[in-house]
Amino acid sequence: MKPSLLIRYFILVLLIIGDSAIMTGNEQVYTELQVKKAEKSLNGLHADINKINTLLNLSDWYQKSYENPTTLEKAFIYAKDALLLSESLHSDIYAGKCYLQLSMLHQLRNNNSMIEVCARKAIDFLNKTNQIDDLGEAWVMVWSAKMRTNAPISERMTPIYKAASIFKRSKNNKRIGDCYKEISELYFARSDFFNSMNALKRAVYYYRAAHLNEKDIYPISLRLSILLEADRKNKDIIKLKNETFAQQNKLKSEAFLRNSMIISLVLLLIILGLLYKSFVFKKKTNLVLETQQNEIHQKNNTLQNLVIEKEWLLREIHHRVKNNLHMVVGLLASQAEFLKNEEAIKAINESQNRIQSMSLIHQKLYQSENLSMLHMPSYIFELTEYLKDSFDTGQSIRFILDIDNFDLPLSHSIPIGLIFNEAITNSIKYAFPNGKTKEIKISLKSDSDKRIVLTIHDNGIGLPKDFDPYNNPSLGIQLMHGLSEDIKGLFTIENDNGTKMILVFSMNEQLINT
């Protein structure tokens, strides 16, 4: 057996001897005559404090003979009767004492759960009174319940420390010493010898302050001496272990340092070899990469030149398309001079406007840096100005423009331009037969769902009552419907204090905001 285990064994033996000595000295003996006399007096007593005291004394007397189940049952009966009487008299003091007595009786019955329940109830009542010693005993019973149920040591510490602090208020040195003795045991159980010795020193101090016989204190003093000696030996053992551990670490460190130096040298040689090999390989790779980079650079220059050439070609195409469209417009104008039929002249003029709307798109494209996207605000503005000049409206019609700042691709710009041309042309020609204030609102907006809404709204006379926007022989209406379908848009025309045309379409690609 190891020395530390022997020391702990002797300490536990001394603890048992000390507890037995102290408990034996505190026992009181009651005679059977006293018990019989008190039981006979119960019937003649009034339901007051005296009767409660008698019931508690009888319960206490029968508690001392707990080896006999019959007498222990009587102890329970008298304690419960005392509790009922205390509650009827609304006495916090005696209700607390009764619950404390019941807690002790449950301990004799090994009813561990009820020990703490009754003790907690006793604490609740006694906290309202000045019965400090009984309150301390109630906390001792909570500690006892924790001990009997093998609760964690931290849970056992709390109630016994609480009991010690309460006994200090009543200066009950004997019970303070008992509490610190038990606290010492708890520290000892988790091998905290330092705090165990300090608690035991306090127990001896309070026992002597309570004037206990030295023969009763001797086992605890002896235990304290053994703990001090054990602590000293433990410190010596720990010191020796630390020295041994330090020596072993030193030897290991030296061996590790020696092995590390050898390994480091080997690794250094390997690294140097790898570095040299890497240098040779890198040199060869750099030559290959340099050659490839020169080839890529030449190809990039060639591709860049091709891109520039294609941009110029595309710009030239847009320019020539614009010129050709202008030539067509000129030819139509020349042809119109020789026509006598008003319908033919009207048709040629409408065709001129349509061609001009497409021509303006090609003009804007070859003048811009981006050859595939059209800046809508400037295009709508210039097309509006062209139509105003074409119909010679002057200041007679007020145009209100609300255009978001974004670009659209050529695939959408031409259909929108033609639809815009048809709608504005119809408003100028047919919406204002009288002299009222003439106004055309033009809106082109985009929203967060990538939808674009073109709205053209005049305040003219509106559509005829028999007008059918979906089955109309007019070329302009059919053209607007067809162009809307080309861009998968929704085209509607309705009366709303004038004629209101709405075109809604979506863009699959991201709009370019400028």
TrEMBL record:
Query: One MF term from GO for this chain?
Result: protein histidine kinase activity
Q: Which InterPro entries match?
A: HATPase_C_sf (IPR036890), HATPase_dom (IPR003594), Sig_transdc_His_kin_sub2_dim/P (IPR011495), TPR-like_helical_dom_sf (IPR011990)
Q: One Pfam family for this entry, by name?
A: HATPase_c
Under catalytic activity, the entry for this protein gives: ATP + protein L-histidine = ADP + protein N-phospho-L-histidine
Looking at the UniProt entry, the stretches that span the membrane are: 256-276
Keywords per UniProt: ATP-binding, Kinase, Membrane, Nucleotide-binding, Phosphoprotein, Transferase, Transmembrane, Transmembrane helix
- EC number per UniProt: 2.7.13.3
Task: Cite the Histidine kinase/HSP90-like ATPase domain residue spans from the record.
Answer: 411-509
Protein name, UniProt field: histidine kinase
Q: Mind giving the lineage of the organism this protein is from? A: Bacteria, Pseudomonadati, Bacteroidota, Flavobacteriia, Flavobacteriales
